[in-house]
Specification:
The complex is a heterodimer of chains A (about 425) and B (about 1100). By secondary structure, chain A is an alpha/beta fold. Chain A folds into 2 domains: about 120 residues, Urease, subunit C, domain 1 (Roll), CATH 2.30.40; about 270 residues, Metal-dependent hydrolases (TIM Barrel), CATH 3.20.20. Chain A is about 30% helix and about 20% strand. Chain A is built from 13 helices and 16 strands. In chain A, strand 6, helix 2 and strand 7 form a beta-alpha-beta unit. In chain A, helix 10 packs antiparallel against helix 11. Chain A is globular and about 65 Å long. With about 1100 residues, chain B is α+β, with helices and mostly antiparallel strands. Among the domains of chain B are: about 400 residues, Metal-dependent hydrolases (TIM Barrel, Alpha-Beta Barrel); about 90 residues, Lipocalin; about 90 residues, Beta Barrel (Lipocalin); about 100 residues, Urease, subunit C, domain 1 (Roll); about 45 residues. Helix content of chain B is about 25%, strand content about 30%. Classes of the chains: A alpha/beta (about 425), B alpha+beta (about 1100). Chains A and B meet through helix 7, helix 9, helix 10 and helix 13 of A and helix 8, helix 9, helix 14, helix 22 and helix 23 of B.
Chain lengths: ~425, ~1100
């Protein structure tokens, strides 16, 4: 057999092995109105409504109220007594759908070659049949903002709904904002003794980021005047340049946050800080400049030996107390994104008020990533992306009973539940 | 050093014959060196505690023959005299650690196959590092202990004079100690064993066992009972060590290496001393208990970088404390009664060495102790106390002649004698005499200054304006320079030559046009200027207190000088000031009418002096102006006890057991009693005395410590069955496919801050596992998380021994190494066990040999790797096997069944749910993640229901962390068993309590709240499975190791300490705080940061 053919077969085999194809069937378009009643409705736009109802029509929330909903013939009624209705959770910053198997390179589509690649856009490569999507839905995450990663400017993020036949079906915002990994001027030295500490070179320069912004402005002017050729990267910068979408800037330290905010404001961008371990120390600046924070380090270890053991657990509480607008993310790459509500729950254990924690993974998350008009609360006119639970979504033991995306009731099965069912059946057959 | 050690050291005296008649033939004329020298008039430091004010030392043939006062010592005729008036003569220092690079010869005749084992090396035959001898001499060292560098068993030390001249090079001690070192990783190429500290300990042990084995078989062959064993210079070289005839020098990298040294010495029965790393202050008390002599460096950490907010934020309290406390190291060890020598090793040159030593002196080390650590102590440690380290008759003439204080970093070392050989290191380069002259050149008068210390020459004109000079050359006789002639009214540059003749300068200036001018110089008188009409302000120190004083200097003779004290103005009678000497005199009348004599000197703008005539002599210190001078005395540094572990969250003493009674708590017993509402738990002597409902509880005893735990939940302390926390020097000895010989218990790091963080999450015990890079990994260690203790105290005694195995992708990953497939993994493990069976047979045969014939029977080699596998085969050691796929799980279980033992636990066991019935029937425990998946190919079928399915089918299941993060929250990991798998809350909590206890065979002591068990208890503010609950307290054996309230004060203490040290570092970097208008930006930012830490 000629070598190229062997290579082809091998690579085909690898591909078929590695890229999982989830077997969950996307839900059909909503055809008749639904009335969910009897549940506690956590609208996140006001006090929870005990024994409330929500009427969904054409994928949108039509009516929210208390008691029994008005009777109509063509409405499908769901009795949810004793249960809780929340807007779907929003996950920000992972590579969900771009990265299937950690150690298997051919399943990686999140990190393009080059350090500055604004021309690439996450949703282009999100695999709608990734097994990660149904797994992620298990804890009520129905919306996600996917980030490319790697390099100084990894590319543009996309907001997706976690159910659909194609990635076009998934798309909510194809360009949800530019991702920037802010330079760090201090690298932590290894845990050496006092006689062996070493510090690697500093790479704090923001020159290349300034250049990027200036070149993009210059290009646009010249291009409009017919003086320049097409340039994908420069063109991709335009939305963020005009503040239409956020610049998601990964920054942890005091200097990083301060300089990132100053830089973004100097260029009249719309910055969002992601990471933000030291954001409480920069609260005044963040509030005065109206910069929100995506806090993704709740479960991280404290960065220094002498910091309180709960330094990261209390990070959301400290942001909340300081009055900074924030939401919570996991900081993971996608496979374990279903743990998102548990991060918020941990923050509650260490002082964050429970309603603020719920807001931080639903309402504020939607708001910060530009979905505030359509997602994040149960209000008339918003999309019917909802979860019905038997308890607080923050608690690990809570089960999501049913879920709707744009009024379509989606499957809560996954590769995991299927394998569970399969082997439960094995032991059933064995009588054990 | 104790007596037997001294006896075995070969003392090698420098012989006079060698000195007088070099062995090599003389080419050309002979050189003569004085055989007898007298050093006369020096201040002699005989020993750290004895001095002679004005003495003479006579040196003859390399030895000190007489020491005494100038008056007492008669100098024989023919003696060369060195005048040393005003200088200090002291014993030359002894360097206790001079590393020499080991250069191995080619060929492998009998060499150890591992390149780090070369005990046959003799330090004396290794080349000296270039320039190091000279650097040591320039710093006042006359002798050094040379230590073969690098390697685990690196060879034998020696003590040599630091003199390259061949006739002086004979060593003082040519066979010293065997150097052992816990060396691993790095420099030997990427694939070289050992790659981790645990492997280093194992290799050292194996090598020493090999030496015993080899010696035995050599003896057998000598008697003709067998052919000789393979020749081994390495094992022969170690024979004296394993037979207790050669002491060991442990060259250590870390303070905790001391315990590894202790354990090895105990196992093999040898004596040892320590080359310390300088961080011993972190655990001084425990190191002191070993009672071993120790050599410590003074290359202290540099000031932390505080130049930006982020850099400051990066500094841990521990780093800052290291900076502050490292200089206390020698003193702390001495305070504990240890014999401590100080080495210059790590310091590039003498002044940095003395400067660092000064830091120790500033922090409590006395000069006498510092001196002893460089002279008498190392001499004693080398067994040369009669010969080195003192200026005493009979000792080798190793002397230093110094200008200035002996330990002053700015001292000048004039001469160094080594075995009587004089090295002239610093001669005067500057003309002696006056430092300032009035020069007359033609009609002009200018001023010349010769700075003796800085060896600089300068000229100034009548207006005190500096005159430009070029090409200045200065020597003992005078000066040449090119000077700006316009300053004396001539043109261009002139060439100046000046020589010192008597107390005058004489010379000429030659101008470009050929004109030559005579130059004459007379010494100028110094002139002190007391500002007339000004006020000098300061303090009067009368012993018990300090009083504010000032002196008002009169404008002219018509006025009276006034002494202002308290609120009184007193005139100074008989006031006089001598501008030449700077002396200020007079007297004032005291309150009782008696006379107080004022005697003071003006130095620049300061006045210092005394007021006498009263009950005590009062000292005064004033400076020009209205503000008193800054306090002179530095705050005395106090050596305080340091917390253990060193740094934040450490404690001065470990927590102690308390008898305590928790009332009205919800008790999760993890035993038959299930969950008890309104329960009572009584702890006595570290054990649980009662567990049950309040209704059944015995009445509280008088004085019993009762804790109202209403609303709180008590669970057993949580147990993590898969941890890599607190392991030092690597968790993976990945360099070989089988590393059964390595032990995690050798490398427990009790100071890992993650222990404390895990205690804060209710964790009390952990299974420290070797990594998963090889099919047969290292032996595990089960620990009780007793934060603040020694690693010995963490060891969980009752736990059954175990070992880590690994299957699947990780072990196949090492390219070029067998096994590379899951098929090969099976074959490799099977083969290892078969080897162990053969090995056991060989030893059985040996052990059945009658004792009286063993000395003529060839002994099998003790193999630590196979010993471990034999223990597994015999059921004495548990396998904890990293496994993923069902096929490999099945393979291992079947292999174990075939070989007749039971697997302890399957770790991770992600596809365990597919073969749960086989795991349960085999009797293996299953210790898995709650919900990890997708990070590699073999975990694509991992599901969060795994644990619950295996539990339901009958296996003993635990959830583990394998992560420093998750180990902090094992309670909520357990809760995932409720969500994915519908376990009952009790069964779910069992996943992190009694089940892992069973898997580690510690369930007889911990894992449940039952009468008689060890009181390992976690206290929660709510349902422990609730995501929003937190841990309030964690108890181990009745001692409280974590308490949220105590934590609040510990973190506050850590913050205060850190603030204090950062302020110190900032002050050290930028000087004390500048006046407000000049305040440097970093200071402001940092202060802001401090306050922000309080959130």
């Amino acid at each position: 057999m000629p070598a190229p053919l062997i290579t082809l077969i091998v690579s085909l085999c690898l591909t078929s092995v590695c890229v999982a194809q989830s077997r969950q069937i996307p839900a059909p378009k909503q055809t008749m109105p639904i009335a969910i009643h009897g549940a506690t409705i956590h609208t996140l736009a006001g006090e929870p409504i005990e024994d409330g109802y929500v009427i969904i029509s054409n994928g949108k929330i039509e009516l929210v109220g208390q008691g029994m909903p008005p009777i109509a013939d063509d409405v499908y009624f769901i009795d949810a007594k004793g249960q809780h209705l929340y807007p779907g959770l929003v996950s920000i910053g992972t590579q969900l759908g771009l990265l299937e198997t950690g150690a298997t390179d051919v399943t990686h589509d999140h990190n393009e070659l080059g350090t500055i690649t604004p021309e690439v856009k996450a949703v282009i490569a999100v695999n709608p049949d990734s097994d990660h999507l149904p797994v992620t839905r298990e804890t009520g995450i129905l919306t996600a903002v996917i980030f490319p990663s790697g390099g100084r400017v990894p590319g543009r993020s996309s907001a997706i709904r976690l159910d659909g036949w194609t990635n076009e079906d998934l798309t909510i915002l194809d360009d949800a904002g530019l991702v920037i990994d802010w330079p760090n001027n201090v690298r932590r030295s290894s845990r050496g003794g006092p006689f062996g500490s070493s510090e690697s070179a500093e790479d704090a320069s923001t020159d290349e980021l300034d250049d990027l912004i200036e070149q993009a402005k210059d290009w646009k002017q010249a291009y409009d005047a017919g003086e320049r050729d097409h340039d994908l990267a420069m063109n991709a910068m335009q939305k963020v340049l005009h503040g239409e979408v956020p610049a998601y800037i990964k920054a942890q330290t005091i200097q990083q946050i301060n300089s990132a905010v100053a830089w973004a404001k100097r260029h009249k961008l719309n910055p969002v800080i992601i990471g933000g371990s030291n954001a409480p120390e920069c609260a005044e600046l963040l509030i005065s400049e109206n910069v929100p924070v995506i806090c993704n380090g709740v479960m991280s270890l404290p960065s220094r030996r002498d910091l309180p053991f709960d330094q990261q657990f209390t990070l959301p509480k400290r942001l909340h107390d300081a009055g900074v607008t924030f939401c919570i993310a996991t900081g993971g790459n996608g496979a374990h994104e279903r743990r998102l509500p548990f991060h918020a729950g941990k923050a509650v254990a260490y002082g964050l008020p429970e309603d603020a924690a719920v807001d931080a993974i639903i309402k504020n998350a939607a708001l910060i990533c530009g979905l505030g008009d359509s997602h994040g609360t149960i209000e008339r006119g918003k999309v019917a992306t909802l979860i019905l639970t038997d308890g607080s979504p923050l608690d690990i033991r809570t089960n999501v009973q049913r879920a709707w995306i744009d009024g379509r009731e989606i499957s809560l099965e996954s590769r995991h539940t299927e394998l569970n069912d399969k082997y439960r059946e094995k032991y059933n057959q064995l009588g054990r | 050093m104790n007596i037997p050690q001294i006896c075995l050291l070969t003392l090698f005296c420098i012989s006079v014959q060698i000195h007088a008649h070099p062995i090599s033939p003389t080419n050309g004329m002979r050189e003569t060196t004085p055989s007898s020298t007298a050093i006369v008039g020096a201040h002699i430091i005989v020993s750290p505690s004895e001095t002679i004010e004005h003495g003479t030392v006579i040196v003859k043939d390399g030895t000190i023959v007489q020491v005494g006062t100038v008056e007492d010592v008669e100098i024989p005729n023919g003696t060369t005299i060195v005048v040393a008036e005003g200088l200090t003569l002291a014993p030359a220092f002894i360097e206790s650690k001079l590393p020499v690079q080991v250069v191995q010869q080619q060929g492998s005749d009998g060499k150890h196959p591992n390149v780090r084992i070369h005990p046959e090396i003799q330090a004396t035959s290794m080349p000296m590092p270039e320039g190091r001898m000279e650097a040591l001499r320039n710093s006042g060292f006359g002798a050094a202990c040379i230590v073969p560098e690098t390697g685990i068993a690196s060879g034998t030390t020696a003590c040599i004079p630091l003199d390259e001249s061949p006739e002086f090079r004979g060593p003082y001690v040519d066979e010293g100690q065997m150097t052992l070192r816990f060396d691993y990783g790095g420099s030997w190429g990427s694939a070289s064993y050992p790659g981790a500290l645990c492997g280093s300990v194992a290799l050292m042990r194996q090598t020493l066992y090999d030496a015993i084995w080899h010696a035995h078989n050599v003896e057998v062959s000598k008697q003709g009972h067998a052919i000789p064993p393979m020749p081994s210079v390495a094992f022969v070289a170690l024979k004296d060590v394993v037979e207790g005839n050669q002491p060991v020098l442990f060259d250590l990298n870390h303070e905790s290496d001391v315990y590894r040294a202790r354990d090895l010495a105990h196992e093999f029965g040898f004596d040892y001393t320590i080359l310390g790393c300088g961080e011993e202050y972190r655990r001084t008390k425990e190191i002191a208990q070993l009672g071993k002599s120790i050599v410590v460096p003074v290359d202290f950490p540099r000031r932390p970088d505080v130049s930006t907010p982020d850099k400051i934020d990066n500094l841990s309290l521990r780093t800052l404390l290291d900076w502050e406390q490292a200089p206390t190291n020698p003193k702390r060890l001495m305070n504990e009664g240890l014999q401590v020598a100080i080495t210059m090793d790590g310091c590039n040159h003498g002044s940095s060495f003395l400067r660092n030593l000064q830091k120790s002196i500033d922090k409590g080390l006395t000069e006498e102790e510092a001196l002893a650590a460089l002279t008498t102590t190392p001499a004693t440690m080398l067994g040369l106390q009669e010969k080195l380290g003192m200026v005493t008759e009979g000792a080798y003439a190793n002397l230093q002649l110094i200008e200035g204080d002996i330990l002053d970093p700015d001292r000048t070392l004039r001469d160094l004698w080594i075995n009587g050989n004089r090295h002239r290191l610093d001669r005067d380069r500057v003309p002696t005499g006056a430092s300032s002259y009035v020069l007359r050149i033609g009609e002009e008068t200018i001023e010349a200054n010769i700075d003796q210390d800085k060896e600089r020459f300068s000229l100034a004109d009548a207006e005190e304006k500096r005159i430009s000079l070029r090409n200045t050359e200065i020597n003992r006789d005078g000066i040449t320079a090119t000077m700006d002639a316009t300053s004396i009214g001539e043109q261009g540059w002139g060439s100046l030559i000046l020589v010192v003749v008597g107390d005058r300068l004489s010379g000429s200036l030659t101008l470009a046009n050929g004109k030559r001018m005579v130059v004459h110089g007379e010494p100028s008188e110094t002139y002190h200027e007391l500002k007339t009409g000004a006020t000098y302000t300061g303090k009067l120190d009368v012993g018990s207190t300090k009083l504010d004083i000032s002196i008002a200097v009169p404008q002219d003779e018509s006025e009276v000088a006034v002494f202002h004290i308290g609120s009184q103005d007193k005139s100074i009678n008989d006031y006089s000031f001598d501008a030449t000497t700077g002396m200020l005199n007079g007297w004032i009348e005291s309150r009782d009418g008696s006379r107080r004599e004022l005697s003071a000197t003006l130095e620049g703008e300061d006045i210092r002096g005394t007021l006498t005539g009263g009950p005590t002599v009062a000292t005064l210190y004033l400076t020009l102006g209205d503000e008193p001078p800054e306090e002179l005395e530095d705050e005395q540094f106090v050596i305080e006890a340091l917390p253990v572990p060193f740094g934040s969250y450490g404690k001065l003493s470990p927590p102690t057991q308390q008898d305590v009674r928790f009332e009205h708590a919800t008790l999760w017993t993890c035993a038959e009693d299930g969950i008890i509402e309104d329960g009572c738990l009584i702890v006595r002597d570290g054990n649980i005395e009662f567990v049950g409902s309040m209704a059944d509880a015995p009445p509280a005893r008088f004085g019993e410590n009762v804790i109202d735990a209403t609303g709180h939940h008590l669970t057993p302390g949580l147990i993590d069955c898969h941890s890599h926390t607190g392991l030092r020097g690597g968790v993976n000895e990945w360099t070989q496919a089988n590393t059964a010989e390595v032990r995690m218990e050798d490398v427990i790091n009790p100071d890992d801050i993650d222990w404390y963080r895990q205690l804060a999450g209710g964790l009390t015990a952990a299974n420290q596992l070797h990594g998963s890079a090889n099919p047969i990994g290292g032996q595990n260690s089960v620990v009780s998380i007793r934060w603040g203790n020694h690693s010995d105290a963490m060891h969980f005694e009752q736990a059954k021994s175990g070992i880590k195995f690994a299957l699947g992708e990780n072990v196949k990953r090492s390219s070029g190494r067998y096994p590379d497939t899951r098929m090969g993994v099976e074959a490799f493990i099977r083969d290892a066990f078969l080897a162990a069976q053969d090995y056991e047979d060989a030893w059985d045969e040996w052990n059945s040999t009658p004792e009286y014939t063993q000395h003529r029977t060839v002994m099998p080699r003790k193999d630590l790797e196979l010993d471990t596998l034999v223990e597994i085969l015999n059921g004495d050691r548990l396998i904890h096997c990293h496994s993923y796929r069902q096929d490999e799980i099945l393979m291992l279980l079947r292999l174990a069944e075939e070989l007749g033992f039971t697997i302890g636990t399957l770790q991770h066991v992600l596809e365990g749910y597919k073969v749960a019935e086989i795991i349960a029937d085999h009797g293996a425990g299953a210790s898995c993640f709650s919900d990890w998946w997708a990070y590699k190919e073999e975990v694509m079928d991992a599901i969060p229901h795994n644990g619950a399915i295996m539990h339901d089918v009958g296996a003993v299941v635990s959830f583990n962390s394998d992560s420093n993060d998750q180990a902090r929250r094992m309670n909520t990991e357990a809760a995932k068993g409720v969500r994915w798998g519908d376990l009952s809350p009790e069964d779910a909590l069992n996943l992190v309590t009694i089940n892992p206890a069973k898997q580690l065979h510690i369930d007889q002591r911990v894992g449940s709240l039952e009468k008689g068990k060890q009181a390992d208890v976690a206290v929660w503010n709510g349902d422990p499975l609730a995501t929003t609950s937190l841990c309030l307290q964690t108890w181990i054996e009745g001692a409280r190791y974590f308490d949220l309230n105590e934590d609040a004060s510990l973190r506050e203490g850590a913050l205060d300490e850190r603030t204090r040290l950062i302020e110190l570092a900032l002050a050290a970097a930028y000087g004390d705080l500048a006046p407000p208008e000049q305040a440097a930006a970093p200071v402001e930012v940092t202060e802001e940061e401090y306050s922000c830490q309080h959130h």
